[in-house]
């Protein structure tokens, strides 16, 4: 079974940076898959932040993070990273990584436990 474990969250001042990691296991090596990052702030709905496709490396970003966040993958380590720069207080949320067959049009069947990101003003 696919397992995802996030790490790297924490407390940072506005304008600072954090790098989140999503360590994945259980994928069949030849299967295409996508890893997405989502976030949920208190009282708000879950929001898709970014996604990367394993088959072609294509990346997607929400408008709210374009130009500030960068998603990347290290296939040798089975890890996907989310580099978050120029952080804003509104980026405060629990960040989750999830796995699907594709970045869009397929269900997110596996989720990590989440990691808290808090950006102070």
Summarize the structure in words.
Strands 2, 4, 5, 6, 9, 10 and 11 form a seven-stranded mixed sheet that branches. By secondary structure, the protein is an all-beta fold. It is 0% helix and 51% strand. β5 (47-53) and β6 (59-61) form a beta hairpin. It has no helices and eleven strands.
Give a short overview.
By secondary structure, the protein is mainly β. It has strands spanning 3-7, 10-13, 18-25, 34-40, 47-53, 59-61, 69-74, 79-84, 93-100, 110-111, 115-120.
List the helices and strands and how they pair.
Layout: E1 3-7, E2 10-13, E3 18-25, E4 34-40, E5 47-53, E6 59-61, E7 69-74, E8 79-84, E9 93-100, E10 110-111, E11 115-120
Parallel strand pairs: 2-11
Antiparallel strand pairs: 1-3, 3-8, 4-5, 4-9, 5-6, 7-8, 9-10, 9-11
Which structural class matches the secondary elements?
mainly beta
The biggest sheet, with number of strands, parallel, antiparallel or mixed sense and barrel status, is: 7 strands, mixed
Strand fraction band? over 45%
The helicity comes to under 10%
Report the radius of gyration as a whole number of Å. Answer: 14 Å
Sum up the structure in keywords.
mainly beta, 0% helix, four-stranded antiparallel beta sheet, 121 residues
């Amino acid at each position: 079974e696919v397992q995802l474990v996030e790490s790297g969250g924490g407390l940072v001042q506005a304008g600072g940076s954090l790098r989140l990691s999503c360590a994945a296991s259980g994928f069949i090596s030849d299967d295409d898959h996508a890893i997405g990052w989502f976030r949920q702030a208190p009282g708000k709905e879950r929001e898709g932040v970014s996604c990367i496709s394993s088959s072609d490396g294509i990346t997607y970003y929400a408008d709210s993070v374009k130009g500030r966040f960068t998603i990347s993958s290290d296939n040798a380590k089975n890890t996907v990273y989310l580099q978050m720069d120029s952080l804003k207080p509104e980026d405060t949320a629990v960040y989750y990584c999830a796995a699907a067959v594709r970045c869009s049009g397929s269900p997110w069947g596996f989720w990590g436990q989440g990691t808290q990101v808090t950006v102070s003003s």
